[in-house]
Amino acid sequence: MNRRVALVLSVLALWAAVPGQLLAEEPLIVSTYPSLSGERIYIVEEGDTLWDISEQFFEDPHYWPVMWAFNPQITNPHWIYPGDYVVIFPKNLTEKGAVLVWAESRYNEKAKDISLEVRSLGFISDRDFRESGKIVWSREERDMLGQYDEIYVEFYIPKKIMRGEEFTVYHKEGKVKHPITGEMLGWKVRHLGKAKVLGVEKAYAKALLLTTYQEIERGDMFTDVFDHQTRLSPKANKVDLDSSIVLSMEDDHELGENSYVFLDKGRNDGVQAGNRFVVLEKGDGRFELDEDELADLPWEVVGEIMIVEPYDGTSLGVITRSIKELSIGQRCEMRKGYGEEPVVEQ
Q1: Per the domain annotation, does 329 fall within a domain?
Q2: How far is CA 12 from CA 37, 41, 57, 95, 213, in A?
Q3: Phi and psi of 321, rounded to 5°?
Q4: What pTM was estimated for this model as a whole?
Q5: SS3 breakdown of the chain: % helix, strand, coil, rounded to 5?
Q6: Are residues 84 and 175 in the same domain?
Q7: Strands 276-281 and 300-310: what pairing?
Q8: Does residue 118 lie in a domain region?
Q9: CA dihedral 123, 125, 130, 135 (to 10 degrees)
Q10: CB within 8 Å of 8: residues ≥ 6 apart
Q11: Domain boundary, last residue among 178, 212, 230
């Protein structure tokens, strides 16, 4: 079944005929799902907000919380996207007398059923960095190098280089340090392409640039070749781990779905590609609380990260779900068995 059609049907399935009519202000909350007849489906367009949609259909933009309440598939009212579906119930049902129904929290914590086309981005361990080669010279008469250009590479730590061997070309962008402990974790890098060794002459390996994603320059680095893009499906977690977001690939301060981030746990801790961490937060949605006030509040799930590539002590992941902006230093948790229970269909 088409995913969007399934979503619409699941939303409409939340409503069944209810006695009375919808309360215009604060609805009574009960524990069974109702349904309303005559509802319409609105498809979100570029630039739409719940505020604007409420003004269009109800002639009152301040009515958006009620409309949000009737659309539990919208987990964050500030984040709706073109193509999303919004149930618009008739205005004649907004008079006093009906019941708004919730059977559970709208913040669903179940694992997300998702398969991703992901890229391996942005990190190399300090050991691998020290064993990398560097593009020193090129036969080409320009600064920016591209596909099928020839280069000369020097390896500062002696290693056996074979004709026909392939390498990943990358650009060093800076050190990665833990935001809390200050520990050196490795280097943030940007993958630029792949190269193949044509031969070795004295101090240099001569290579041909096979694939380039962006311009390559003298001074860019060489490391072992690996797949830069792959199809990734979830894998059930085998261990319990606490972790933190330590870096964003794009240096964004506010992170959301599809952002690539680095966590401070890796394969030495039992992390595998396809494992998922939930992102946690506690507190009030609007006000900053002190430590005593926070102590009595529970940790709540506000996002999910799927691991793209684990390294020795760190991992690259992509945010697959978030109900608010996430940030560097935020607590994450890998829960043993997460993903084995029934998943949330997308």
Answers
A1: yes
A2: 9, 9, 18, 21, 45
A3: -160, 140
A4: 0.55
A5: 15, 35, 50
A6: no
A7: antiparallel
A8: no
A9: -20
A10: 41, 85
A11: 230
The full DSSP string for 97-124 is: T-EEE-SS-SS--SPB---EEEE--SEE
Which structural domain range is residue 78 located in? 3-101
Q: Give the Cα-Cα-Cα angle 238, 123, 230 (nearest 5 degrees).
A: 65
The CATH number for 192's domain is 2.40.10
What span, in angstroms and rounded, lies between the C-alpha atoms of 280 and 326? 9
Q: Tell which residue, 90, 110, 105, 74, has the closest CA to residue 35.
A: 90
Question: SS3 of 52, please?
Answer: helix
| Selection from 227, 219, 213 nearest residue 151 by Cα | 219
Residue 270 lies in a domain: yes
Q: What is the largest CA-CA distance in the chain?
A: 88
187 contacts 172 by C-beta, under 8 angstroms: yes
Last residue of a domain, one of 101, 131, 158: 101
In tens, the pLDDT along 219-273 reads 999 888 666 566 778 888 999 999 999 988 776 667 888 888 989 999 999 999 9
Residues contacting 338, CB < 8 A, separation 6+: 111, 236, 237, 276, 278
- pLDDT at position 211: 87
